[in-house]
Amino acid sequence: MKKLMSIGFVLLFSFFMVSCDGSSDNPQDVAKNFMEALTDQDYDKAKDLGTENTIMMIGMIESMASMAPEGEEAEDMGEITWGETEIDGDKATCFYSTPDKADQQVDLLKVDGDWKVDMKKEM
Description:
Blueprint: H1 2-15, H2 27-39, H3 43-48, H4 52-66, E1 81-88, E2 91-97, E3 104-111, E4 114-117
Antiparallel strand pairs: 1-2, 2-3, 3-4
Helix pairs in contact: 1-4
């Protein structure tokens, strides 16, 4: 089950790739808070920082996590190194890398004036 959880988190980080109350003028802050929420398995906070697409994806990850044996921890991604952020109107992309994988990104959309992480189903 630990392997399933690890695969789920790897897929999750591959798919999309945040101030505490979900509002921020800085998309990278939103992305950082979102990633921290996922690492802490704080799915409610992660959902608050995401679009409708993201909320559905987090729901799937949350379901997989609930099937893990009690007390089993998700695999740690290691330290995230944040790169530049590109903003184009109501869309933003924050680039990051982990010790295992470089050139990853978090896509965000501005929804009702707030930046929200926008995970997509396709890779």
